[in-house]
């Protein structure tokens, strides 16, 4: 059973086709307990389809999908009791207050005496940072407050798994910061699987990342591993003087795969991609300094941004 392996979600060869046309191809996802798992992909990649399969709302065409060690489609009711879900564009009864909305949700998903329900609602409002707005109608809520209310709703019954479909997509930077902060706060209590196409958010909050492109999983790894890849490292050198000679010296090295030069204001920035990072680390400055007519004003190993990794993988 996957849950005994500390995996909350585990799919094997998971496939979904519509009218014979594959939307998801043989997906192997492994979502560890208490991770914030960023499920990343461009529009139409198949993220929402995957979420529907995990929630047991649609049946796979092939392969398997287990949640808490149970088959997602055949045990969807049991799984839903332990899972909170925030849809991409949550809708509310606008005249209701946040507290009334949570009370309404709790009627379906939270079992217990009235006093306990009310204290859970209070606790949830506080955690979502909505306690001071609890008794205002939702129609005046900002985008960020709406999303936080959606997350509050999804976790009213202390779920073991929270599935959030694009929780921060429509928000301004402050709204996004608040939603990401809330996700981080909940991590010790639950496992969060969320879809997004915002790379920056994934980099800020996730510990595991999977990248989906056109229905295919192109990467799945802890975020540091994805960003700290030792292959294909990139170095930056900022040079004062004519950098032409340095560029060609670098290009002659077998461990240099490309050199890109940009000269905006008398300085030249060389972006040097290397195929062997340990050789580059030892030699790159020595090679550049062989040209005595230039001055190296900056030198550094470029830290990969998720955007670089994503673009490389998605563009194949
Ligand atoms: N019921 C359906 N019938 C036919 N095709 C479908 C159906 N549902 C989804 N698709 C197709 O599957 C593909 C993946 O859609 P999905 O909604 O899973 O992508 P997504 O990654 O969530 O994209 P977005 O970020 O735009 O929401 C799309 O090409 C979509 O048109």
Automatic annotation (TrEMBL):
Q: Which UniProt keywords apply?
A: ATP-binding, Nucleotide-binding, Transport
The record's section on Pfam families has:
ABC_tran
SUPFAM superfamilies hit by this protein: P-loop containing nucleoside triphosphate hydrolases
Q: Which PROSITE patterns match?
A: ABC_TRANSPORTER_2 (PS50893)
The record ties this protein, via CDD domains, to: ABC_DR_subfamily_A (cd03230)
Query: In which family does this protein belong, per the annotation?
Result: Belongs to the ABC transporter superfamily.
Q: What is this protein called?
A: ABC transporter ATP-binding protein
Lineage in the entry? Answer: Archaea, Methanobacteriati, Methanobacteriota, Stenosarchaea group, Methanomicrobia
């Amino acid at each position: 059973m996957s849950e005994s392996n500390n995996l909350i979600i585990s799919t094997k060869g998971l496939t979904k086709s519509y009218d014979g046309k594959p939307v998801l191809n043989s997906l192997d996802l492994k979502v560890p307990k208490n991770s914030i798992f960023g499920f990343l992909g461009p529009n139409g990649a198949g993220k929402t389809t995957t979420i529907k399969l995990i929630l047991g709302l649609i049946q796979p065409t092939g392969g398997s999908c287990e949640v808490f060690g149970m088959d997602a489609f055949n045990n969807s009711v049991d799984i839903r009791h332990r899972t909170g879900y925030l849809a991409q564009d949550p809708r509310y009864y606008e005249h209701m207050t946040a507290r009334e909305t949570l009370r309404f949700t709790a009627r379906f998903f939270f079992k217990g005496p009235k006093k306990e329900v009310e204290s859970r609602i209070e606790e949830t409002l506080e955690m979502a940072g909505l306690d001071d707005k609890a008794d205002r109608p939702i129609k005046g809520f900002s985008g960020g407050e709406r999303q936080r209310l959606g997350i509050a709703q999804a976790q009213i019954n202390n779920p073991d798994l929270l599935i959030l479909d694009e929780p921060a997509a429509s928000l301004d930077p402050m709204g996004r910061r608040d939603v990401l902060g809330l996700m981080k706060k909940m991590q010790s209590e639950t496992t969060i699987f969320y879809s997004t196409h915002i790379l920056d958010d994934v980099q800020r909050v996730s510990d595991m990342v999977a990248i989906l492109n056109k229905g295919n999983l192109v990467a799945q790894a802890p975020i540091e591993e994805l960003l700290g890849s030792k292959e294909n490292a990139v170095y930056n050198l900022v040079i004062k003087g004519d950098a032409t000679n340095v560029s060609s010296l670098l290009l002659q090295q077998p461990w240099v795969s490309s050199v890109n030069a940009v000269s905006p204001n008398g300085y030249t920035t060389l972006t040097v991609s290397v195929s062997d990072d340990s050789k580059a680390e030892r030699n790159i400055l020595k090679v550049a300094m062989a040209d005595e007519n230039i001055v190296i004003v900056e030198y550094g190993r470029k830290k990969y941004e998720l955007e670089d990794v994503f673009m490389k993988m998605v563009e194949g």
